[in-house]
Design a protein that fits this description.
12 helices
Length: about 500
Amino acid sequence: MEATTGPVLYHKLQLWEPGMESEEEEEEEIAEPLVLSLRRSQNTPRNKVGGLPGAWARLLASLLLLAVSSSLALRQLHSRDSPKENLGSVAPPASRHSHHPGVYHHGAIISPAATCSQLGQELLVAGGNVVDAGVGAALCLAVVHPHATGLGGMFWGLFYNSSSGNSTALTAGPVQTLAPGLGLPTALPALHLLHTHFGRLPWPQLLAKPTKLAQEGFEVDAPLESALAAQGTKGLCPLFCHTNGAPLSLGARATNPKLAAVLHQAALASSPDLAGDALLSLLVKDLGLGEAPAQPRPALEPALQLSMPQGVLFTTPGPSAGPELLELLESALHSRTPSPTSCLSLLQTAMISGNSAVATVDSSGSMLLLTSSINSSFGSGLLSPSTGVLLSNLVARSAPSAWACPLILRGTLDDMESDMLGLVASGMPRGTKAITCTLLNHLATPQTQHQAQQRPTESPGVCDQGSLLQVAVHAEHAHVSSVPSGCCPFQGY
């Protein structure tokens, strides 16, 4: 008696390649039917399978297996020669569905400069994490927005690690003086320290594009043009002036070769301390100081926490404005006063920003908020000739409450998939009040309305008057936006 089986499906094999996960759901499954007729052994001198002598059946089976193997090998060789297999060129994976601007499947970044947001996205796509993207964008802003930030300034940051559930503060410590009226720079050692502990990509990769922008040039954008028009060019020529002495206008190209050399040296530094040494030694020479002051010691510390019914708040410890921010929030929550409907009056102050901010987020819930300052527009206005660095006028009496107050809200520590919200202020003297107002509005808004969409603006110069950068994680997607809406460029994938 003969026993037969139904069709057996042999799936075509495919080599894994970037983006395959997003494509496999859109393609129909490919299968080739191969029907086998299996018969029981017969106790006859000439055992037959399917009516053919045994030797011929074995030969046919061998030829069939050889043909299938050859076909698979050819397909694999074709896949290897395909452009998709070129891992040296990484592109964002194709999305299976689309979203409004500011909502992304994997990660996103928002900053005051389009060039720097683009760099952050490139680092994310290249396999970097939110720390790589944020630090790279901050170094980029140090080149293209010298009116608000730079290597001569100070940095504070807040990092939430979704893998560990820990929140870490990057602290600059008390303001130190390099010379009378001039603050001691801490930017390079602070950013290198943060990257050393939490970054994924090589440190030199983060400095490659900022170095190139300083060396080969960058276009003056609206915020820088506005600051130059208000400040004038005293002490800033020839870097930011036309040949006739007028300040550079929108779209003009600026270069800073001395700054490029400093960034190149910093890329070679193997430790946070060494990252700042080369800059500090050149500054000491420019200022004619006898010896270098004590090197600043940025640190990584546990973030301050405030528990509340809606979750847990994290911010930076003193001497930043973090403690002041938590006091304002705690008082507002206990007083049960109605939440204000608009925070724009706190944001739109008539001032040119002396600080800058950048925020990055991924869909798993990790966030990095960075804020830096040179105290006022173009800092001290003193341009170091050997380094191309504008020194800050942050001194001991300066108040960091104008800018150093990043905030993260986690829904609940027990639920690792709960929503996250991050807020960081840029360009305002009332940052703590603006963040308090914005958070109260967030808590009073129904969940479905938390992620208001915005479209990119062609005129990001409104950030000059103060803005709040917002990043969030909701429904396993990364969200970025700003208050006022659309004031800062964002990118994601």
